[in-house]
Design goal:
By secondary structure, the chain is of the alpha/beta class. The chain is built from 29 helices and 15 strands.
Length: about 700
C-alpha cells in the first residue's frame, strides 16, 4: 500500500493537495507555515486538515516499519508464502497486520503447543477434516506414554483446534465486528469498598451498564480510573450465542462424529482465547477514542486560554493573595520587567489594613501603575475587595487573573533563570501580572498540563497529549506573531522553524547587537540558515524597521510582489499600507501566477490593511457579586455573574467568586439540544448564571444558563 492511498482511505481531500502537503512535510515544513504560506499547493487546507495528513503520514510510516519486522520474523521461520507476503503488503491497519502475524508469533507454552509436542496435531487435522472417521477409534492410536486415554487425546486435539480457530483471520474479522458493534461495558462496586468514602465520587457507576460504542469519553475514563483505584470491577459483555454462531459460520460442518468435538473446541476457543483477546482489544480501542476526545477537549481549552485577550503593554501592580502569609505584591513595567516587590498583610490574622492601603496607594503613584492584577486563588475575593477600598488618585482597572500553574512556573528552571535572586512567591506574583499583559507570552513557560483546563489529562496517553498540546501552542504563537526583540526564549522556541537552540541564539545575538533591525538580519544569527529563515520570517515581527513589511505577516518572499503592487498603483510602499481605498481597488487577478493564487493574494491585502494587528479580542473588566464570597452565601435561584474557567464534553465550569467552581451541565446550556459545549460558551466568557443546586457536604454547585 502506498502512502497516498493510505491517506485517501481516511480523508476526502483532493489528491493533489494530499501529495503536495506530504511533500512539504517531508521537506520539514511546519504546519503553521504550510497553512499560511503554501495555500496554492495545499488547495487552501487549514491547520486541522494539514495536521490530519501529518498524523496519517506518521501512522503509515509506523505501519510500514512494523510490516518489515513481521516479514523478517516470518521469513526467519521459513514459512513465508507469496500469498501471505501480498496480504501483509496490502494490510492497511496494524490490527489486520497483527492478525496475519498471530499464527507465527512466539507464544508462551500453550495447551495447544503441549498437545502438538505430544503428537496430536494429526488427530486435530482428522477431526477438522470431518471425513467420517470414527474419532474415538482413531484416537486410540494416539495413546502413548504422554497420552493416557482417548479422552486425553481428544482433549489435546481440541486444544489445537481451539488455537487454530482463534488465529483464523476470518473468524477474527467477524468477532471483531461483533465486539466493536455490540459490546456492553458493565461496572460493579468491589464489595469491600462499598462504604469507602473515597469511592463515593464514583457511586453512579456502582451498578452500571452501557453500550461501549456510545459511552462518552469522560465517563469511560472515570470508570477506568475507579477500576485502577480498586473501587470498581469492569466487564465487557457480548451475546455469547451470537459470537459462537459467528465462528460456526466461518467453519463448514458435515454433521459427522467430529462435529461434536469441533463445537466444543469452538466454545473453548471463544471463552478461553477469543473473548479475552477481543475484550482487551475493544477496551484498548475505547481508551484510544476516549484519549483522543479528552486530548481534544484539553487542546480546545488550551487554545482559548492562550488566545485570551491581553491588556497590552501597561504598568502593572500584581498581587498573589494570601491570609497568614500575606499578599505578595510586585510592580512591573510595560514589558513585564520587575521594578519592586514586597508583602502586605491586609487580612487576618495580622489585619494591617491601614498600612496596606497606604503602601498600595504609594506604589501606584510611584510606579505610575495603570492596572492591577489579582490571582484568583486563596483570599482572592478578599484581596479584590480590599484593593477597591484603596482611595487612588486616578482610575486604575482591577482584574482577577486565573493563576493556575503559577506555582509550577515559580518553581521552574525558567523562573529561576529569570529571577535568580528572588524566591518563588515573587516569581509567582510576577507571573500573575504578566498574564494580564499577555497571557500567551507567559503561559508558554508552563507545562500545558499544569494550566488547569483539562479533562482527565493524567489518565490519557501522555505522549499523544504532549504532542497535541505542543502543536496547539505552536499554532497559537504563530497565529499571533511575536516581536523578535522582546520575546522570551520560550516564546521564540515555538515559532515555526526555530526551536530551543535557535531561540537561544536569537536572544544572544540581539543582546550582543542591541536589537535586530530587519528580518534579513536574522540570517546573521548563528545556525539560522535559509530553511529556518523561510519557515520563521513571516511570524517574526520587527518593530520600527526600515521596511514596514517587517512588522507584518507578509512573508519576505512576497516583498517584491507588494513593491510591484505599490508601483502599479503609483504610490510609495509605506503609503499603501493601511490605505483601504487603494487596496480595495487592486485587481488581484492581474497578479495570479502558477505558484501564487487568490488565497495568498487575499491574505496579503488583508495584512496590508492592518499590518501586525493583534487578532485577539480586547480584555474586559469583570466583577463578581459583592455579596457572594463563599459557597455558604449561595441560595438556589440566585442569578450571578461568572467566568467560564473550564470546558468539558459534559458541560462547563464557571467561577462565580467562591472557592468552588459551579458546573453548567450541557443540558442546561440552552433550551435546545446541544452536542458541542463550545458552540455555546468559550473559555473566559462572562456569563450570568442561575444557581440550581448547592451540596455543602460535597462542595458541588449546579448552575444553569437557561434560568
Amino acid at each position: 500500500m502506498k502512502l497516498l492511498d493510505f491517506i485517501k482511505l481516511e480523508v476526502n481531500f483532493p489528491e493533489k493537495a494530499i501529495f503536495n502537503t506530504v511533500a512539504l512535510l517531508e521537506d520539514d515544513a511546519t504546519i503553521p507555515f504550510i497553512a499560511r504560506y503554501r495555500k496554492e499547493l495545499t488547495g487552501n487546507l487549514d491547520e486541522v486538515e494539514i495536521e490530519k495528513i501529518s498524523n496519517l503520514r506518521k501512522a503509515f510510516l509506523e505501519l510500514e516499519k512494523r510490516k518489515l519486522t513481521v516479514i523478517k520474523a516470518i521469513e526467519g521461520l521459513q514459512t513465508m508464502s507469496d500469498a501471505l507476503l501480498l496480504k501483509i503488503h496490502q494490510a492497511n491497519s496494524l490490527v489486520i497486520l497483527e492478525d496475519l502475524y498471530l499464527p507465527f508469533k512466539k507464544k508462551r507454552k500453550t495447551k495447544a503447543e503441549a498437545a502438538k509436542e505430544a503428537g496430536l496435531e494429526s488427530l486435530a487435522k482428522i477431526i477438522m477434516s470431518q471425513n467420517g472417521a470414527d474419532i474415538v477409534l482413531v484416537s486410540k492410536k494416539y495413546i502413548s506414554k504422554d497420552i493416557s486415554s482417548v479422552n486425553e487425546a481428544i482433549e489435546g486435539a481440541k486444544n489445537i483446534i481451539a488455537e487454530w480457530i482463534s488465529e483464523n483471520p476470518y473468524v477474527r474479522k467477524r468477532l471483531r465486528k461483533l465486539f466493536q458493534n455490540s459490546s456492553e461495558i458493565a461496572s460493579r462496586i468491589v464489595k469491600a469498598q462499598k462504604e469507602n468514602p473515597s469511592a463515593q465520587k464514583y457511586n453512579q457507576y456502582f451498578d452500571w451498564n452501557e453500550p461501549l460504542q456510545k459511552i462518552p469519553s469522560h465517563r469511560f475514563l472515570a470508570i477506568l480510573r475507579a477500576e485502577n483505584e480498586g473501587f470498581l470491577k469492569i466487564k465487557i459483555n457480548v451475546d455469547q450465542e451470537e459470537a459462537l454462531h459467528s465462528i460456526s459460520n466461518v467453519l463448514h460442518f458435515k454433521n459427522t462424529s467430529a462435529t461434536k468435538y469441533i463445537n466444543e473446541a469452538i466454545e473453548d476457543s471463544y471463552k478461553r482465547l477469543l473473548k479475552p483477546s477481543f475484550t482487551n482489544e475493544v477496551i484498548s480501542e475505547a481508551k484510544n477514542r476516549a484519549d483522543e476526545d479528552a486530548i481534544q477537549v484539553f487542546a480546545d481549552n488550551l487554545e482559548q486560554l492562550l488566545l485570551a485577550p491581553p491588556l497590552g503593554n501597561k504598568r502593572i501592580l500584581a498581587l498573589d493573595p494570601g491570609f497568614k502569609s500575606g499578599c505578595k505584591l510586585v510592580c512591573l513595567d510595560e514589558n513585564g520587567m520587575l521594578l519592586h516587590n514586597e508583602t502586605i498583610y491586609p487580612h487576618p490574622p495580622q489585619k494591617e489594613m491601614t498600612m496596606a492601603i497606604k503602601k498600595v496607594k504609594s506604589l501606584v503613584n510611584a510606579y505610575n501603575i495603570e492596572a492591577i492584577s489579582i490571582g484568583n486563588g486563596t483570599a482572592s475575593r478578599e484581596t479584590e475587595q480590599f484593593i477597591k477600598k484603596v482611595p487612588l488618585n486616578k482610575e486604575v482597572e482591577v482584574y482577577v487573573v486565573n493563576e493556575a500553574g503559577a506555582s509550577i512556573y515559580s518553581a521552574s528552571k525558567i523562573a529561576r533563570d529569570e529571577f535568580p535572586n528572588y524566591d518563588i512567591t515573587v516569581r509567582g506574583a510576577v507571573s500573575i501580572g504578566r498574564r494580564l499583559i499577555d497571557p500567551l507570552a507567559e503561559l508558554v513557560k508552563i507545562d500545558a498540563k499544569s494550566i488547569g483546563v483539562g479533562q482527565y489529562q493524567h489518565d490519557v496517553d501522555q505522549t499523544k497529549l504532549k504532542e497535541k498540546l505542543d502543536a496547539v501552542v505552536m499554532t497559537c504563537v504563530n497565529r499571533i506573531g511575536i516581536n523578535v526583540n522582546s520575546a522570551s526564549k520560550e516564546l521564540l522556541s515555538y515559532i515555526s522553524g526555530i526551536g530551543p537552540v535557535l531561540a537561544e541564539n536569537i536572544i544572544n545575538y540581539r543582546s550582543e547587537k542591541g536589537s535586530i533591525n530587519s528580518r534579513k538580519e536574522l540570517l546573521k544569527v548563528p545556525r539560522l540558515g535559509a530553511k529556518a529563515y523561510e519557515q520563521s520570517a513571516g511570524f517574526l515581527r520587527i518593530k520600527n524597521a526600515e521596511n514596514p513589511l517587517d512588522d507584518s505577516a507578509v512573508h519576505p518572499e512576497r516583498y517584491g510582489l507588494v513593491n510591484k503592487i505599490a508601483k502599479d498603483a503609483k504610490i510609495a510602499l509605506h503609503q499603501i499600507i493601511g490605505n483601504k481605498e487603494i487596496l480595495h481597488k487592486i485587481q488581484l487577478e492581474n497578479y495570479v501566477k502558477e505558484d501564487l493564487g487568490l488565497p495568498t493574494l487575499n491574505d496579503i491585502i488583508k495584512e496590508l490593511e492592518k499590518p501586525g494587528v493583534d487578532p485577539r479580542s480586547k480584555i474586559k473588566v469583570f466583577q463578581f457579586d459583592e455579596n457572594v464570597n463563599t459557597i455558604k452565601d449561595l441560595r438556589t435561584g440566585m442569578k450571578l455573574p461568572g467566568i467560564v474557567n473550564n470546558i468539558t464534553n459534559f458541560g462547563c465550569f464557571v467561577d462565580i467568586g467562591v472557592k468552588e467552581s459551579g458546573l453548567i451541565h450541557i443540558s442546561k446550556l440552552a433550551n435546545e439540544y446541544i452536542s458541542d459545549v463550545n458552540s455555546v460558551v468559550k473559555l473566559g466568557q462572562h456569563l450570568m448564571v442561575t444557581v440550581l443546586e448547592i451540596d455543602l457536604d460535597l462542595k458541588r454547585i449546579q448552575l444553569s444558563l437557561i434560568g
